[in-house]
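Quick start: what a row looks like.
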Amino acid sequence: MIRVLIVDDHEIVRRGIKSYLATEEGFEVVGEASSGEEAVRMAQELRPDVVLMDLVMPGMDGVEATRRIMASNPQTCVVVLTSYTDDSRVLPALKAGARSYLLKDVAAEELGESLRRAHRGESVLHPVAAQRVLREMTAPKGAEPTERELEVLLLVAQGLSNQEIGERLYITERTVKAHITSLLSKLGLSDRTQLAIYAHTHGLVR
């Protein structure tokens, strides 16, 4: 049996997925979570084989929940099921450890097969998500953060505001914003909170 944890902030979505999986052989829904925080806790408690993860939820989003689940439960595989295909979600989700990326318009039978493939260690990407990954792989190299951007990153991780960072580095607040925008693009992240987490998880700051 493939033990599944369903994560979505909409009860009707969770109920529909659970009802479908109940009709399919080989699946057991071991839990439902309505938030990223709840997903992390339940994944730790239940140790599911597959976490079916929504991305946009109140509080902790699905990207951060995926990152935390993979850090504590590397044997679990995360399958993203979302309505979004923009760069700010596709690439961060995959970099956080998601194995597959599906859209909510997926056919029920395809969802079941995708979960089975993910459990076998295979990746399933929606065509638009695959295009995003291909574009990232074929993008010109040399997009590493500059020394100044790394300085800004470390100060963001310390909780300083743009104004405080500008005063510390003797640059304008507008320049600070430009460095942060560049960092988000180069690292495939979506906000300054993820920048701070990136700095901590990569050992750049204690």
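That is the whole record. Residues 173-187 form the longest helix (15 residues). The chain has two domains: 2-137, 147-201.
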